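From the pipeline queue, job 12 of 40. The input is one protein chain; the requested action is below.

Action: predict structure.
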Amino acid sequence: MKVMIALTGMLYLTCQTLFAQQPEKVYGFARTKKPVEWYKAQINAWNKVLDKDPKDADAWLNLFRATRNVIRLDTTDKREDKVKWAGLRELLNEMKLAVPDSYEYNLCEYAIEPNSPAKLNFLKRADELANGKTAHIDFMVNLGVTELDQQKTDYYCNQWFQSREVSEGLLNYSYNVLAGLDQHAIIFTSGDNDTYPAWILQSQGIRRDVTVLNLHLLHLDAYRAKVFQKLGITNWDMKDNQSGEQGSSHWDESRFQQELLKRAVANRNAYPVYIALTAGGCEEYIQSVEDKLYLTGMAYQYSEENMDDIALLKRNFENRYALDPIDKLIFSDISADQVIMINQNYIVPMLKLYDHYVESGDLQHVAWIKSKILALAEHSEQKADIKAHLSKQ
């Protein structure tokens, strides 16, 4: 019946030992990430729930998420990707028969191919059936953003904020990212945890002048054309690519991002352009224009003119950033592991500022920033190197 992930021999016994077969709510990676064995155990647990009640729509949703997460994480599964995803499609077909017009089925039908116009009716139906449920809200926010519908974006971001399901630690991080930017800035982000919290904060009136551009959403041709026109950025014909095939999906990702950023910094409105420290995949571009990028805090700022980056670091860390929460974990935060990870981005700019304070003899600020760095270093893989650097001074 339901899609099963084969667990054999010692691996199966290990999973049974480490992860009790109690069904638990399964979330996406951005909110909290578990070991692959945990997701495999949850497949088994939620299948048992469905054996008792095939009409349990919530069980189907958790089974779908667990199965999808295993497909993404399981490096021992050597099957072709199309075969793996075909299995998830089979699960959805069974879900359709069991709970055909449920919120959960419509959500999963859209989630298997998000941002596809052909699937949009499923998302809208999920929204109609939500009745206080929030698992679809990130997709609705995407819809508002890509349609450049600020009212819709604010509505769903505010719903998300009011649900209290947003990580406080991630909100705090995004607050500092936004706080350190110049007026009317454009900032490029790349993931859920550096994008959604920023949009949610903007829905609450914080730094609404800033435009947060997610690199992945910019692959949507219609959205990119609209937002570039609004920002005074020259768009380009996506048919002009190395393979001769149409559509941004055929572009090499690194080349695609370089083209985006190159055109953004030449925007006709002279808006300042930043790349978030979290913007994965931009390494090649950053290296190619390293002499024009300045570390001003939680983002690199592009500038053709020389900038006093130390002055901007001091301005942001001393006057603009809310730094108290980084000294301790918010243990009630379901995304605590993600907060630990994203907070590691503070270390490099803090070390640069620390070195400046030492050289200038500002002992008060040396002690202040050192205590922050040490707190962050406790969770860093470079803990020993960081402590060695601090001990030299």
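Job complete. Residues 166-391 form one domain.
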